[in-house]
Amino acid sequence: MADVKDEDWVEVASTAQDEEALLIAGLLESAGIESVVEGPTGGSPWPENIGAFGLSRIMVPPERAAEARTLLERSAHDYLREKPEPDEGE
Q1: Average pLDDT over residues 33-57
Q2: What are φ and ψ of residue 37, in 5° steps?
């Protein structure tokens, strides 16, 4: 993964869950879009889930931002369309 400090990367998503941030970054990487997760990484004794302080941000190069956002929107749409119905009694 590249260093965001080298360029003016842009945020394409944010989440309060480190695991979700890593999944989003993995999806982007699998599509050939370099990404970096900035933000909480766990292991801190201090609360990190307070407003924007608790957010992990997924950053990409500016020239790939539109493509990354489209991929994330399409993935969310596909998930909601194919989401299985819960079994009765759940």
Answers
A1: 70
A2: -100, 125
The average pLDDT across 71-90 equals 74
Strand ranges of the sheet holding 10-15, from the earlier edge strand across to the other edge: 10-15, 56-60, 36-38
The tokens for 44 are: 């801190």
Residue 12: is it exposed, middle or buried by C-beta count within 10 angstroms (0-12/13-18/19+)? buried
Phi, psi angle pair for 8, to nearest 5°: -90, 75
3-state secondary structure of 59: strand
Q: CB burial class (10 A; 0-12, 13-18, 19+) of residue 78?
A: exposed
Which of 61, 58, 64 lies closest to 7 in space, CA to CA? 61
**pTM exceeds cut of 0.90:** no
pLDDT greater than 70 at residue 9: yes
Residues 4-82, CATH architecture: 2-Layer Sandwich (3.30)
